[in-house]
Amino acid sequence: MLVAVARVEEVPPGTVKTVQAGDEAIALANVDGSFYATQNACLHLEGPLGEGRLDECVLTCPWHGWRYDVRTGKNDFDLAIELRTYEVQVEDGEVKVAV
Ligand code: FES
């Protein structure tokens, strides 16, 4: 099911934001105009990834600095640690996430 979570202009390139799709909290990242969605809760101690820092495709958790590639959800230190990722579609200026 596709759920509209934000307008395109609400998440400018180079930023990440926490959005809600039904019961799921999602970190929505804009990498140079391409949107990626991962679970919001960091796999370390559930820090809010949507409040983290985005450098290109690398999202850094605001709590203790774990880093993930938003395209794959993989942790950059241990590739076995992997966030849930969601398919994203943009339609009519709205960002929609498949949940
Ligand atoms: S909770 Fe994300 S690095 Fe600790």
Describe the protein:
- This protein has strands at 2-7, 16-21, 24-31, 34-39, 53-55, 58-60, 67-69, 85-86, 88-91, 94-98.
- The strands form three sheets. It has a four-stranded antiparallel beta sheet with strand order 2-3-4-8, with no helix packed on it. The chain has a three-stranded antiparallel beta sheet with strand order 1-10-9, with no helix packed on it.
- 0% of the residues lie in helices and 46% in strands.
- The protein has one domain (2-98): Rieske Iron-sulfur Protein (3-layer Sandwich), CATH 2.102.10.
- The N and C termini lie close together (6 Å).
- The model has no long low-confidence stretch (mean pLDDT 97).
- With 99 residues, it is mainly β.
- FE2/S2 (inorganic) cluster (FES) binds at residues 42, 44-45, 47, 61, 63-66.
